[in-house]
Amino acid sequence: MRDPVKRAKPIYVEVQDYLLDLISGPDYGPGDRVPSERALADTLGINRMTVRKAIDKLVDRNVLERNGTSGTRVPLVQVTRPIEVHSTLGITRLIRNAGGKPGNKLLHFGEEKATESIAHRLGIAVGADLIMFRRLRTVNDDPFCIETSYLPAARFTGLVAEDLVGGQSLYELLKARYGVEASARDREIGVGIATDLEARLLLLQPGSPTLVLRLVARDGNGAPIEYMKSVNHPHHVVFRNSTPAPQD
Fold first, then answer.
1. pLDDT tens digits for 101-132?
2. 3-state class (DSSP) for residue 103
């Protein structure tokens, strides 16, 4: 801990930062217990009440959870997402099938010009008009991913923000209104670093690792219709191969 004279923020906030750095590192994963209040107080040279206040704040933010028998731990995974490109289950159905309560909030809706990277993924000209929107998805009211979608504007004229504010399924909307049956066939999964905005929305420390999914959805003829980037909370989401292993 820094000298009190030089402190720019309350001690309990510094303890929160310490814990966020700790659980964002390679030694902690979903379900792992963090050090006890006594151990943290001894390590940091502060009183237990300050440590408890810091932990309480992180529990309120769903970054940590308390269990009466096993102490304080990193929350268990709440969303299991398939790795397979042939999976057709939407994320809302995946959450419901697992017994969770899905939710999403439209954060932004507007028009953009296609950059070279997005144009390449969608098979359109650089500078072509795009519809771009960003949604925050939740499970049991906990934020777990931020999805940013790009669609060719020429293909989906008339699509407006009001079509998505109620949490409607994009693919069901495209099928009903435009006769387009979409499937996400191209997927890339990697690790990213949370921006300030992503960290704030996902209740992470800025610079924390995230799980990043990039996919291209195509219509029945194989033409790209959506490029989507999904930034996922590393403690709430796991990507898993759901295909049964071959038997010997």
1. 888 899 999 999 999 999 999 999 999 999 99
2. strand
Q: CA 209, 204, 136 angle in degrees (round to 5)?
A: 100
Other CB atoms closer than 10 Å to residue 153's CB: what's the count? 18
Please write the tens of the pLDDT for every residue from 53-87.
Answer: 999 988 887 788 887 666 898 876 667 776 654 45
Residue with tokens 């995946």: 94
Q: What is the H or E stretch that residue 214 is in?
A: strand 209-218
pTM above 0.85, yes or no: no
Are the CB atoms for 49 and 88 separated by under 8 Å? no
- The neighbouring-strand residues paired with 99 are none
Helix (H, G, I), strand (E, B) or coil at 38: helix
Count CB-CB contacts under 10 A for residue 38.
10
Query: 């006890």: which residue's tokens?
Result: 36
As a whole number of angstroms, the distance between CA 221 and CA 223 comes to 6
Two structure tokens written together for 200: 């704030």
